[in-house]
């Protein structure tokens, strides 16, 4: 399992203001349901029970619906809520698109240095800005090149059957897609285990996620020593964040999807609060003594 580097933000130049950052993102990117957060094993893990309670309280501040999946270092579910509910994926679709593109690289069908038709950049450059800056022009060009139907079929073949691709219903440079917290969490879990791509392609995609420049969501609630390789998704009424949380040599997968916001900036403080709750659980879990079998 790859170790996510810590405190990548510390070496960056000062980030632009939230309003400007989100405005840039929306320029580049372009349901009802109920369910309680549940801890996978509340009697065995009081910290998970507490996290579920706190996140359920926070769910009352989400105007629409909240979907959550948190997986521990072994891939075991810690907490979940509405994990199978479809959400407009916003830019989370780029995770599945990057997988499809890098699978073609692994197969030798294309190379990282090939020029992307109509874009003027290489495949590697397009993947970089698509993930680390959420550039939707790169996503639209890569998806159009591979074929959206083929990208969707590939995602389903790989087991991400709840993730859909429907570009024809979107506007220019904004592709209408759906996904679920469960599919996003499963993707990240399999990525960190090296089960989706070759070693070099896995390293490349994880590196792009680590270099994420859009840190307005969960990471805004994390302490500097917490690593977070992640991807955000943002539209006017939709805000998501999903990635791999790293602390003390342990990696956790988290997917948090929300909708119903009247304005995208409203979601940022909420995500900071959610990030602090998730970090509190991770710290408690990594500090807990390991259980040893009885003689």
Kindly describe this structure.
It is globular, with a radius of gyration of 18 Å. 39% of the residues lie in helices and 19% in strands. Residues 1-34 have low confidence and may be disordered. By secondary structure, the chain is an alpha+beta fold. It is built from nine helices and nine strands. It has a domain at 48-60 and 86-255 and 274-287: Beta-lactamase, CATH 3.40.710. A hairpin with a 3-residue loop joins strand 7 and strand 8 (238-247).
Task: Give a brief description.
This protein has helices at 18-28, 46-59, 93-107, 123-132, 136-146, 148-157, 181-192, 199-210, 267-287; strands at residues 38-39, 66-71, 77-81, 87-88, 164-171, 174-179, 227-234, 238-247, 250-259.
The CATH superfamily of the domain at 48-60 and 86-255 and 274-287 is DD-peptidase/beta-lactamase superfamily
Largest sheet, described in full? 6 strands, antiparallel
Q: Count the helices. How many?
A: 9
SSE topology string: HEHEEEHHHHEEHHEEEH
Helical amount: 25-40%
Strand content: 15-25%
Number of strands: 9
Uncertain regions spanning at least 5 consecutive residues: 1-34
Helix/strand structural class: alpha+beta
CATH topology of the domain at 48-60 and 86-255 and 274-287: Beta-lactamase
What sort of overall outline do the alpha carbons produce when their principal axes are compared? Answer: globular
**Roughly how many Å is the radius of gyration?**
18 Å
Mean pLDDT: 85
How are strands sequenced across the largest beta sheet? Answer: 1-3-2-9-8-7
Q: Can you name the CATH architecture of the domain at 48-60 and 86-255 and 274-287?
A: 3-Layer(aba) Sandwich
| CATH C-level of the domain at 48-60 and 86-255 and 274-287 | Alpha Beta
Q: Span from first to last CA?
A: 30 Å
């Amino acid at each position: 399992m790859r170790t996510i580097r810590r405190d990548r933000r510390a070496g960056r130049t000062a980030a632009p203001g939230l309003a400007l950052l989100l405005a840039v993102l929306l320029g580049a990117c372009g349901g009802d349901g109920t369910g309680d957060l549940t801890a996978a094993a509340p009697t065995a893990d009081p910290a998970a029970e507490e996290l579920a309670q706190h996140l359920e309280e926070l769910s009352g501040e989400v105007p629409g619906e909240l979907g959550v999946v948190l997986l521990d270092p072994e891939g075991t579910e810690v907490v979940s809520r509405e994990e199978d509910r479809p959400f407009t994926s916003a830019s989370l679709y780029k995770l599945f698109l990057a997988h499809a593109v890098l699978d073609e690289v692994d197969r030798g069908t294309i190379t990282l240095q090939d020029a992307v038709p109509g874009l003027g950049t290489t495949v590697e450059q397009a993947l970089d800005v698509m993930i680390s800056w959420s550039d939707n022009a790169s996503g639209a060009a890569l998806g159009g090149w591979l074929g959206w139907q083929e990208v969707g079929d590939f995602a389903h073949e790989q087991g991400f059957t709840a993730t859909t691709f429907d570009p024809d219903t979107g506007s220019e440079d904004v592709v209408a897609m759906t996904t679920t917290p469960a599919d996003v969490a499963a993707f990240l879990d399999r990525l960190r285990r090296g089960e989706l791509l070759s070693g070099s392609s896995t390293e490349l995609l994880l590196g792009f996620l680590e270099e994420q420049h859009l840190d307005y969501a969960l990471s805004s609630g994390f302490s500097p020593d917490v690593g977070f390789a992640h991807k955000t998704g943002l539209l006017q009424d939709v805000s998501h964040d999903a990635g791999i949380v790293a602390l003390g040599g342990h990696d956790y997968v988290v997917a948090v999807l929300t909708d119903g916001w009247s304005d995208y900036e409203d979601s940022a403080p909420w995500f900071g609060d959610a990030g602090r709750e998730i970090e509190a659980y991770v710290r408690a879990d990594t500090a807990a003594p390991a259980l040893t079998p009885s003689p």
